[in-house]
């Protein structure tokens, strides 16, 4: 991993962050298109892309967590107050939990439908985490969708906070990730 400058996160963490942003946006857009597809019960290209985006989110989360654990965190200058630090920690914890929960719930929903998640466009199936269960599938799908809607708000809070730090507080919070 690249060592970060004193003012920015490592290149690995920054790339993983922005690739995660792209994967989350892709997942949201592709599921909207995929909901409108009808392929006679087969998974269409948009939903295959949605699956790939979800798997990418999960893989990038591992990279981010490892990168954050192994590398130093550049300080915010000027240092924020205790309430800002607590709010940031809670928001980041929520973001990371969503980034973990959403792909896992998606995989569980597919598995509960009696299907294997396959690596998109290759047909290589991933091992099923659970056996088919239509009742559990319905519950997990609804939870996946509901959390997806709540995740919009958490993402929005994160973006607004980053912009607030950049334009109002005029600290280096956002620049550390650019």
From TrEMBL:
It is a multi-pass membrane protein. Residues 8-178 form the Cytochrome b561 bacterial/Ni-hydrogenase domain. The chain crosses the membrane at residues 12-31, 51-72, 93-113, 150-168. One of its GO terms (cellular component) is plasma membrane. Keywords: Cell membrane, Electron transport, Heme, Iron, Membrane, Metal-binding, Transmembrane, Transmembrane helix, Transport. Its cofactor is heme b. This is Cytochrome b561 bacterial/Ni-hydrogenase domain-containing protein. It comes from Dyella thiooxydans.
């Amino acid at each position: 991993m690249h060592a970060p400058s004193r003012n920015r996160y490592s290149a690995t963490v920054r790339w993983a962050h922005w690739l995660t942003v792209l994967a989350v946006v892709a997942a949201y857009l592709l599921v909207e298109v995929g909901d409108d597809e009808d392929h006679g019960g087969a998974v269409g290209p948009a939903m295959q892309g949605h699956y790939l985006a979800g798997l990418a989110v999960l893989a990038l989360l591992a990279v981010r967590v490892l990168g954050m654990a192994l590398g130093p965190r550049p300080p915010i200058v000027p240092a924020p107050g205790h309430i800002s630090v607590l709010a940031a920690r809670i928001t980041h914890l929520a973001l990371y939990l969503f980034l973990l929960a959403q792909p896992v719930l998606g995989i569980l929903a597919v598995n509960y439908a009696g299907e294997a998640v396959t690596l998109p466009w290759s047909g290589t199936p991933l091992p099923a985490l659970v056996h088919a269960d239509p009742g559990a599938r319905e519950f997990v799908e609804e939870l996946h969708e509901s959390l997806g809607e709540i995740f919009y708000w958490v993402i929005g809070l994160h973006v607004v906070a980053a912009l607030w730090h950049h334009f109002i507080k005029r600290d280096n919070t956002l620049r550390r990730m650019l």
